[in-house]
Amino acid sequence: MNSLSTAIAQALVKYRHLSHLSQEELADAAGIHRTYVSQIERGLKMPTVAILFKISKALNIRASDLIGEIEGQYAELQD
């Protein structure tokens, strides 16, 4: 898993847990498959910006907040 995949995974897990959603619930709300959410969280898949927007909407957060969290996680992994 590369650093960016790790950062995306950590940010997604953080916000999903804060929203008290299962992977299945998040996937249903975002209109994506549950296994895709799992693969993102395990760093196996790299989501597109469009998918990040769907996920952020499902989490009831701004896409910029999710991307900002990813950026922060990525910076920490680079140190």
From TrEMBL:
Gene3D superfamilies: lambda repressor-like DNA-binding domains (1.10.260.40)
Name the record gives this protein: C.SnaBI control protein
PROSITE patterns, A to Z: HTH_CROC1
Alphabetized UniProt keyword annotations: DNA-binding
Tree of life domain: Bacteria
GO cellular component entries: cytosol
InterPro entries: Cro/C1-type_HTH, Lambda_DNA-bd_dom_sf, TransReg_Diox_bact_type
Gene: snaBIC
Organism: Sphaerotilus natans
Domain HTH cro/C1-type as annotated: residue spans: 12-66
